[in-house]
Amino acid sequence: MRALYSVVFICLSTFPASAQDARQTGAPADWPLPIHDTPATLFLQADRVEYRVMDGDDAFLWDMQGWFGSDRHKFWTKMEGKGTIEDGVDDAEFQALYSRMITPFFDLQMGVRQDVGPGPSRSYAVLGLQGLMPYWFELDGALFLSDKGDLTARVETEYELMLTQRLVAQPRIELNFAAQDIEESGIGAGLSSAEVGLRLRYEVRRQFAPYIGISWERLVGDSADFARARGSDPGETSVVFGLRFWF
Question: Do you know which SUPFAM superfamilies this protein is assigned to (predicted)?
């Protein structure tokens, strides 16, 4: 029951106060209503929508996210996936998260994730942390517990280096971990994969920026062994061309 009261309080606190509520503060009747500085807003961003040139079949990738809510409470959605030009989408994932600000620079996130694609379909519970670290490094980390009991984790970090007012260099690192071998997905225990990239974008407008870059990906440990057993190369380097936009 206490948890129910907490949910109701959170929901009610996101709505602006009425005129009657404002008058209960004791302010004179002819004073204007106070300005509410935490309105609910909508934000959508495609961080990476790109074409990848590789030694084998060229590929594509998308990485998008958005939120609706106030400073303290938000509903987040995250979508990402990749595939090859010849075979189409290899895998994709969708996340629906509730986000709560816990410090001025970090949000605690929880919700669900659904994987789709030709491979094994999985559903996950998600617990994550997203925000801005010292020296302006962006961090997005999450734990995933699947409906099969598999525990995995992902950590992504980015940094924006302003070369000019419009030209931005963006290094990016992504690390994936697993608590156990997941052979049907080709994932090994421990550090399973790493991706290091550098993208150089030109902001035609702040909301619209084409970019070019390079990305290096590598499967590690048992994940690399699973890939070799399938006849795949555990590492690849690609030149990327893409677009970043938000509104």
Answer: Autotransporter
**The domain spanning residue 202 has which CATH number?**
2.40.160.40
Cα distances from 69 to residues 45, 138, 207, in angstroms, run 15, 20, 20
Residues 37-54: pLDDT tens digits?
Answer: 678 899 999 999 999 999
Q: Could you give the number of structural domains in the chain? A: 1
The β-bridge partners of 242 are 50, 211
Distance between CA atoms of residues 220 and 1, nearest Å: 47
Distance (Å, whole) CA 166 – CA 240: 19
**pLDDT-based confidence at 121, cuts 50/70/90?**
confident
Residue 89 lies in a domain: yes
Coil, strand, or helix at residue 72?
coil
Pairing of strands 190-202, 137-146: unpaired
Number of H helices, E strands in the chain: 3, 13
In 181-247 the beta strands, taken as DSSP E runs, fall at: 190-202, 208-219, 235-246
Domain membership of residue 126 (yes or no) is: yes
User: Is 17 inside any structural domain?
Assistant: no
Structural domain that includes position 144: 42-246
The torsion angles phi and psi of 52, rounded to 5 degrees, stand at: -115, 125
Assign 3-class secondary structure to 11-27: HHHCCCCCHHHHHCCCC
- The pLDDT value given to residue 25: 58
For residue 83, being part of any structural domain is answered with yes
190-202 vs 161-162, strand pairing mode: unpaired
Token output for 43: 């934000």
